[in-house]
What does this fold into?
Amino acid sequence: MKSMPILLLALFIGCTTPTKGFPPAGSSIEAGRNYVEACLQGDFEKATAYAASNETMKLHTVNTEKNYRNLDKEGRSNFRQASIIIEGITDQDSLHTQMNYQYSLDKKPRQLEIEKTNGKWLVVAVKE
It folds into this structure.
């Protein structure tokens, strides 16, 4: 009978679905880089962890995933191999940062708006 609580605990732990814990970004640059890298790698669960939960970011991440999934095998491979080229970082104040970047794949200029909210750096907007 003493082993019953241990057995139940083991059963409970074994039946729970594991969740990936992504460490919070320590800086605005880290949050932006993590978001963009996750999108390039096709890891949209990770990308969501570094994105604000506003409708703009949800929509952008869903559309990015949809476009990624519509690529053929070679296209996805090209994205996974692409690098992020950071063109410039502008700290607007201690809570807001703008990051201009492009992919090595297509050299199209892009911009992230990154904000510190509730102590966490998150991407709040993407401009392409």
About this structure: The helical segments are 3-15, 28-41, 44-49, 55-70, 73-81.
